[in-house]
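Quick review question:
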């Protein structure tokens, strides 16, 4: 079960620890005012995040020492469990903001869709690495995997959670691409998916309003455009070096979700362009080294698993920062390691643990 292997990728480890430390500092800074108003305790949110960070780090260190091949045997059970949890959340889940995405476990909210991403990536890596040439044939190889992906995406959309669903599809498609599927099939699938994505964007009124607000937030400055405008005000106020840690003005009930989805705006307001650029650089290092680990993995399964884990983290960081800077329409995707949220933090740290395990057994 445990493997001696070599040393883990030190740059991945350092980047994650740095992001985690920045995240805890920013969660405290961004949530302290809300903690006082909601619970009479400025440390309420950062205490919970710190507990989950410790649990996540323990998982990282354990998984880093485990031979990642053990997860091959867990691919199908993990997939089944993730399906059960996605169905369960629709019936017994906790609702917030018009969505039902969480189940209550031991005083904490667990988000099954976050766990589902790792389960899907692992299953896809096993499926492709074991079938190899067969997966290049559409009906007998690729289609069954796409059906599973489509059902998972559909369950997540019932919550609804378009951002997480998009991250699931993107990371799985990256694994499929890395597995050697014909480019013609991928282009055909992409073309077929465009009308579906368009319908999903315009079917729900709130998504359509977000899309219109992305084009011109000032057309509805007190409605759909409010979050984008306030986010841009926070980033612009930070300038080069920021207003100073803890001195954000937008966290005083101006910027919604300032400790979760829009925490990067608060970071830029307090730490400026320099702080924002540092976070982006750390994610770039993580993505670069993650892909390098995939290229140096000793087998196809490890390579695909590393690509999937790296793509999940990189995609979420790219989308979150794109939303916060007004470069993409608003969608609810947290910034890995930075945003407040237990499920995202735990799954991200666990994923990095597996990634480091692959790096320990990779080619020198």
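Suggested answer, residue by residue:
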């Amino acid at each position: 079960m445990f493997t001696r292997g070599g040393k883990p990728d030190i740059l991945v480890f350092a980047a994650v620890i740095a992001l985690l430390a920045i995240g805890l500092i920013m969660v405290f800074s961004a949530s302290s005012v809300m903690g006082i108003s909601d619970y009479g305790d400025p440390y309420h949110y950062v205490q919970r995040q710190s507990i989950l960070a410790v649990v996540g780090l323990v998982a990282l260190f354990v998984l880093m020492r485990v031979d990642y091949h053990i997860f091959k045997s867990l691919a199908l059970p993990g997939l089944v469990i993730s399906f059960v949890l996605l169905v369960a959340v629709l019936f017994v889940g906790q609702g917030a903001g018009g969505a039902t995405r969480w189940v209550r476990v031991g005083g904490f909210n667990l988000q099954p869709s976050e766990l589902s991403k790792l389960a899907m990536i692992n299953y896809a890596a096993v499926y492709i690495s074991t079938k190899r040439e067969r997966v290049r044939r559409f009906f007998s190889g690729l289609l069954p995997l796409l059906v599973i992906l489509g059902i998972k995406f559909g369950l997540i959309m019932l919550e609804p959670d378009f951002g997480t669903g998009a991250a699931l599809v993107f990371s799985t498609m990256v694994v499929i691409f890395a597995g050697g599927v014909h480019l013609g099939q991928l282009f055909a699938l992409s073309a077929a998916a465009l009308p579906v994505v368009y319908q999903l964007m315009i079917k729900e009124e709130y998504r359509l309003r977000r899309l219109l607000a992305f084009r011109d937030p000032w057309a509805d400055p007190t409605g759909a455009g409010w979050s984008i405008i306030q986010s841009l005000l926070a980033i612009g106020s930070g300038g080069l070096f920021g207003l100073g840690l803890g001195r954000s003005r937008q966290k005083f009930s101006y910027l919604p979700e300032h400790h979760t989805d829009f925490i990067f705006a608060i970071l830029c307001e307090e730490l400026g362009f320099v702080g924002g650029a540092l976070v982006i650089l750390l994610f770039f290092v993580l993505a670069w080294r993650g892909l390098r680990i995939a290229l140096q993995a000793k087998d196809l399964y490890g390579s695909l698993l590393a690509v999937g884990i790296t793509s999940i983290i990189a995609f979420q960081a790219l989308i979150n920062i794109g939303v916060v800077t007004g470069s993409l329409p608003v969608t609810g995707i947290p910034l890995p390691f930075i945003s407040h949220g237990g499920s995202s933090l735990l799954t991200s740290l666990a994923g990095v643990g597996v990634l480091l395990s692959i790096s320990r057994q990779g080619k020198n």
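Why it works: Residues 10-360 form one domain. The first helix runs from residue 10 to 39.
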